[in-house]
Specification:
Layout lengths: L6 E8 L2 H20 L4 E9 L5 E8 L8 H7 L4 H6 L4 E15 L5 E9 L4 H15 L5 E9 L8 H6 L7 E7 L2 H8 L8 H7 L1 E16 L1 H4 L2
Antiparallel strand pairs: 1-3, 1-4, 2-3, 2-8, 4-6, 5-7, 5-8, 6-7
């Protein structure tokens, strides 16, 4: 099994402790159902930083990249609800990547998730993609792991939305690697500095220019459209 669809929306941000409870209520009971009502949204999953810090990681699985510029989706982005309007300013340090799926092996929901943000060296994109794809296929069935997914950001042809304006604009990650697993140690080993299969050193050897972000998360909530229908 792989990601549900050929595209994904991957997002990271920080949420202060004093608003975390309100955020999780809104995100689970209004925002997830709203997003999953949009045709082409297949699954929504939220993780929180394993270290206990303010980090949030969310991934939406989509039928295709065209969903990100669909009229139904833009209608929500440009007319946020009052509760959304209240919560959006609290999404600090937002990184939002609107991605095509380059490779996907195994499941997309597990107890833990390792996320990495990277970019290929000039002229090395094909080499990097091939190397990560080969590795991902092997890793997905390794003990402790459940799935590995490689995504590449591609901005859809749309103007800045009302939600983005409320947040003050979003950064993007060029390529995204998401590894899901049921054993935290297995993910920690992958990212271990200087020796892990997905350490910055290893990724640079595969053709990455940099791997400037790596973090571990624990599962908070996951839903598909049928879970949120009244």
């Amino acid at each position: 099994m792989a990601l549900l669809g050929k595209a994904a929306l991957a997002m990271w941000w920080d949420m202060a402790p004093e608003v975390r409870s309100d955020f999780e209520d809104w995100h689970s009971h209004e925002h997830f159902p709203e997003r999953l009502s949009v045709p082409g949204f297949r699954r929504a999953t939220r993780w929180t930083d394993n270290s206990g810090s303010e980090g949030i990681f969310v991934m939406y699985e989509l039928d295709g990249h065209e969903v990100l510029s669909s009229a139904a989706y833009l209608a929500h982005l440009n007319a946020p609800t009052p509760w959304s309007t209240k919560m959006m300013p609290h999404h600090r340090n937002m990184v939002r990547s609107q991605c095509r799926v380059l490779a996907s092996f195994g499941g997309s929901v597990a107890r833990h998730a390792l996320t990495l943000r990277l970019s290929p060296k000039e002229g090395q994109a094909d080499r990097l993609q091939a190397a990560i794809t080969e590795l991902a296929q092997n890793l997905a069935s390794r003990p402790g792991l459940a799935g590995v997914h490689l995504l590449r950001h591609e901005s859809p042809p749309i103007a800045q939305t009302t939600e983005q304006k409320i947040r003050g604009g979003d950064k993007t990650a060029d390529w995204v690697l998401v590894v899901c697993g049921y054993e935290l140690h297995a993910l920690e080993t992958l990212a271990a500095k200087g020796q892990g299969s997905l350490s910055e050193t290893a990724l640079i050897e595969m053709g990455a220019a940099s791997a400037d972000f790596s973090a571990l998360y624990g599962l908070s909530n996951s839903a598909v459209p049928s879970d949120t229908q009244n």
